[in-house]
Write a structure and sequence with these properties.
Two copies of one chain form a homodimer. Chain A is of the alpha/beta class. Helices cover 27% and strands 28% of the residues of chain A. In chain A, the strands form six sheets. Chain A has an eight-stranded mixed beta sheet. An eight-stranded mixed beta sheet of chain A has the order 18-17-22-21-24-23-25-26, sandwiched between helices. In chain A, helix 11 packs antiparallel against helix 12. The longest helix of chain A has 20 residues. Chain A is elongated, with a radius of gyration of 25 Å. The mean pLDDT of chain A is 96. At the A-B interface, helix 1, strand 3, helix 6, helix 7 and helix 8 of A face helix 1, strand 3, helix 6 and helix 7 of B. Chains A, B: Its EC number is 3.5.4.2. Chains A, B: It comes from Candidatus Treponema excrementipullorum.
């Protein structure tokens, strides 16, 4: 801020000079004072300079709408929407979100610092205010075949940059309370840089939660019970109440939220698909749920605005008051929270649900062509079995948790054989970053693929190539299709590729709009259920995405082989 | 934080290693969750590591007392207690204050950066956590004869230092909303350093308050009505509720404070004499008043702790929770707030109202010998008058505001003459920093000094030497006494110095304890009323201290002459 601009801002505030923009006839919601005042909001140089009788170069009629500070997603992996930050902005800004705190750990697992830089660059082309955390756990576990590794030196260097807000969610709880040196180095780097550290502590309690907390961790977004919320607030942490695609925790958590403790609560989406955001909303959905559940509207709005800003020390953000950045949303009511007009830094950027800014969706070569696999043959896909008793990964409806069950299957030449009488299919995970040839093959049930294969390169957290199918030919074809496309989601049926959503950016993001991604994924999902017979209680792609994440109970598959999460060790498929 | 210490802290939290100290059997007050839980607090390396079943090298019985996070004075001029930061710590820590945000603008007016450095050094010798703001208005107004000037370059350089928390109270409101370049340079420097700026905006409202606010100012401690509190909260500011010696605003302001908006309120003392602190308390007094007035105890405690910490971004401060610094106070009850035990960084530093640490009260030559005056004779003390009609500064009971009245006085040789029949005395202000010989002489009423003189070198904000008396001989003697002592407070009666409290540090602070200062000042005050006949509704020294501050209505005296605050111009004594 130079004195010339400061002087001009002050003169506009005092009424000596006209504002850039005055939004007249608003009902201004102040979640601190818990008041709604009628008035005009004057803006100059991106800042709100005053509420009152002001004149501006441009005057906009608020038509008596409620003016609320722009909503903040306190924790999001933008990549989960399978679109670029730019495209994400095009989708969420018209819903009233003006700021996100993003942890780009998905792309970092594929492309490391280059991926992070792509996200920052893409976000800069959008009015969306995206603040980035340095992903703390790339890869998620030591033995993961990710495309990149962010060691403690890289993290320290990232945290030294002004553009990096803090340290992203520390998923390695055992690394914290087990005081692993690399983990402590990352935590120390953030502590010494004076930057916040996001937590990830599902189920943690008592002394282990204390130990995790004193590691410098200041937030948690993984609560699934009111007790967990209370336990974290009592430890001086912020709780980020999540409403995502898979994890829809918000309503369950609200009984723990009071008018007093809500100052330490904020809202987040974490992982939310484009389709879910377009159908249900983004942070405005969290606010709507909270208000509907009986949270007073001021506390609900505070959680969507100023609380998140305070949590992440976002300057001049989160209130409609002089001196704050002019991120303003006009709503018709305080129940449905359908944004009618959205201003960022005083610029009208969305109206009636539509973005008013251009979107380039520019792609950078540094993040494309990320699917590099060694040649795969049907032979490599074999699952050796000593007997007909086999371990099978059993999927559950609407859940990411799997069970390990033993089933009697057909065996031919010492390996699993497909048998239409046995409802067990094959799951294959191929290392796809460095063409190491590492491949994991195992058996699943309850997925339900028939006469075909389903494949994706979105597979948490390392984003290897995962395929499920009931015959090796279609599995191979699905692999080849995604190799050819440079990543994406695909369906193969009876020897033919039925449809593909290409995700050329790191194999996890599209270069098209969120609307097109959503349409494409919806279409594929419908086909997966109708044509390939995937269990209707299971999301065909998301379920595959999480079958490779070796930190969710109870049994998962990695390119290194079948992994027992409970014993935290590899195993084979013999039952 | 290095990884070795972090590792140890985590291991203590997880119960693997013993704590340094465990305070057992406490009722722990959490103002965020608004709960009181029984338990033990474990401390390691200065941090709270957990609440629960812990063991420590040392275990202390809390005897069922309430454990509250250490109190924070959000805005204080330590110099007003007329003792060093070290001595101040000795006084306030046993009362439950563990942290202060100090604006050393009194000593800065006398000794500039040297004075500030002395304060920082003295505070470092105390367990008290004193954070210092860079004084923004030295001198208070351009034409003041202060001992030092802090221009915008000095301020920018100070704000670049890690030890400087922000920019101290911006008293020059007209300079802000009038966009004076030097003022804007100071504000910009703080904004660009990302540091908070304290406000001082008595009575400001509407667009001028907006203009002041957008100058980057984030707090105000000068509210005297609930409306002023609400107006500032609506502008996204913090309000610091003051209970000082002269300004006892707290109770009047509390009707504006709600459970929701209190998160943006904190407590301060601003200017509070040692005697008042010892008689009534420090921040514990604010808390007591608030609770007595019906503020819920959790909000009251939050205002004394976490809110102030958030306002000034004090790291890991303000809650009893793992990861926070172990600044803990044990109280018998939550009504009287008499601190029984006080811990700072986990060390027991006070018990039963007594400090448990040594106090050196070390003095630095850079801040002594500050009284430098040109020779003064009786002739110089004359007040020229054209007629017997004279302007007289009229003092009010219990107020710093003065009126300008016209009185008929005795005149001899074209100058004011003392006349026992006319209750008008003389007020003299001598520039005492650079021996410039500048001297202001004027007339006062309602002060009531008889057969003597009262003098002080504590005189806001420039701290020149001010004397009131009813004869020139005693006035001269009082001047000489304070010159000889290097500053202080003195009483002269019938040609003799009755008693003096020496304030050798910058002429405003003692090198003894706060207790001795308080005793000395109490004794002098008693003598002033009893022996010299000073009006009992007027504080003999504080009233003099403010008679030279040309920013308080309506008429004041500076070494440049009589000053009409309303017209903001100099005048003479002719009525």
């Amino acid at each position: 801020m130079n004195t010339r601009k400061l002087s001009h801002i002050i003169k506009v505030a005092s009424g000596e000079l006209p504002a850039d923009i005055v939004i007249r006839n608003c009902r201004i919601v102040d979640p601190i004072s818990q008041t709604i005042s009628e008035g005009s909001i004057a803006v100059y140089g991106g800042f709100i300079v005053g509420i009152g009788d002001y004149h501006g170069e441009k005057e906009i009629d608020g038509e008596g709408r409620y003016a609320v500070s722009g909503f903040i997603d306190a924790h999001v992996h933008i990549e989960s929407a399978m679109c670029t930050p730019e495209a994400y902005g095009e989708m969420v800004i018209p819903l009233g979100t003006t700021t996100v705190v993003a942890d780009p750990h998905e792309i970092a697992n594929v492309k490391g610092i280059d991926g992070l830089q792509f996200m920052i660059n893409s976000a800069r082309r959008s009015p969306l205010k995206a603040h980035f955390m340095a992903p703390s756990c790339v890869p998620a576990v030591d033995f993961e075949n990710s495309g990149a590794v962010l060691d403690s030196e890289s993290i320290e260097s990232l945290l030294g940059e002004k553009s990096i807000l803090g340290l992203g969610e520390m998923m390695n709880g055992p690394g914290v309370y087990g005081t692993q040196e690399q983990v402590l180095e990352k935590l120390s780097a953030a502590i010494n840089a004076g930057k916040p550290i996001d937590g990830h502590a599902p189920g943690l309690s008592g002394k282990l939660l204390n130990a995790y907390r004193v590691g410098g961790i200041t937030t948690d977004h993984e609560c699934t019970t009111p007790e967990e919320v209370r336990a974290r607030l009592k430890r001086g942490m912020y709780v980020l109440l999540r409403q995502g695609s898979a994890a829809q925790d918000l309503e369950k958590l609200l009984p723990a939220v009071t008018k007093a403790n809500s100052r330490r609560c904020a809202f987040c989406s974490d992982d939310k698909h484009a389709g879910d955001i377009l159908r249900h909303g983004h942070i405005n959905h969290n606010v709507k749920i909270a208000v509907k559940a009986g949270v007073d509207v001021f506390s609900a709005i505070a959680m969507a605005t100023i609380n998140a800003a305070e949590c992440y020390r976002l300057k001049n953000t989160g209130l409609i008051a002089p001196g704050y950045l002019a991120d303003i949303v006009l709503f018709d009511d305080l129940e449905n929270f359908d944004a009618q007009m959205v201003f960022i830094n005083g610029q009208l950027v969305a109206q009636g649900g539509k973005a008013l800014f251009p979107v380039s969706n520019r792609v950078d070569k540094a993040v494309t062509h990320s699917v590099n696999i060694a040649p795969v043959t049907e032979k490599i896909l074999q699952v050796p079995l000593k007997t007909s008793q086999a371990k099978v990964i059993s999927l559950h409806s609407h859940s990411l948790v799997t069970d390990c069950v033993t089933r009697t299957v057909a065996v031919k030449n010492g390996a699993f054989a497909f048998d239409s009488a046995v409802p067990v299919q094959k799951l294959v995970v191929v290392e796809r970053h460095r063409a190491t040839g590492k491949i994991g093959c195992a058996l699943i049930e309850n997925y339900g693929v028939t006469e075909g294969a389903v494949a994706t390169t979105v597979a948490h957290d390392s984003h290897n190539l995962v395929v499920a199918g009931d015959n090796d030919r279609d599995i191979l074809l699905a692999l080849q299709e995604l190799e050819h496309q440079g990543g994406g989601l695909t369906l193969v049926h009876r020897g033919k590729v039925v449809d593909t959503v290409a995700l050329p950016i790191a194999g996890i993001m599209s270069d098209t709009s969120a609307f097109e991604v959503s349409k494409g994924v919806d279409h594929l999902t419908e086909l997966a259920h109708n044509l390939l017979g995937i269990n209707r209680n299971i999301d065909p792609f998301m379920s595959l995405s999480f079958l490779c994440l070796p930190v969710i109970p109870h049994i998962k598959l990695t390119p290194e082989g079948l992994f027992n999460v409970d014993s935290f060790s590899f195993t084979d498929c013999n039952g």
